[in-house]
Write a structure and sequence with these properties.
globular; mainly alpha; 5 helices; 2 strands; about 150 residues; Ferritin; binds fe (ii) ion
Length: about 150
Amino acid sequence: MSSQLYEKMNLYLANQEVAYIKLHNLHWYVKGRGFFTLHAKLEELYDQTAVIIDEVAERLLALGQLPVANLKKALSMATIEELEDAPISSDETVQGLMADVEYWIRDTKEISELADEAGDGATADLFNGYLSEYQKLMWMLQSYLA
Ligand SMILES: [Fe+2]
């Protein structure tokens, strides 16, 4: 049961590693009226992503696992889609973010449940913290587009 948890955590880590660059892409290429708001928000998000990457990797190490620390490997594992190096509108930026945040919410829940089943409360707590942050972000993104 734990091996499935560790695999999912490593996949989550790979996706977060890709997301770190993807958020920079949006931070640099977003265009339009929402530029100043989104440029700043995206910086906040990639800073949070850097924290998540470190926490998940160190949690895996604490559990005796080997976290993915290699971009080639991370890209081969990752399931979130990267973007072209091209301008993107404010609305498309937020819609793309929402698709990824939906993924984070679903995956974060799954990992938290797997951790609970494995009797690993500390990992469940870590991911529950991410879950509430992503749910809040989803509400904010929906409010931006409303
Ligand atoms: Fe910047």
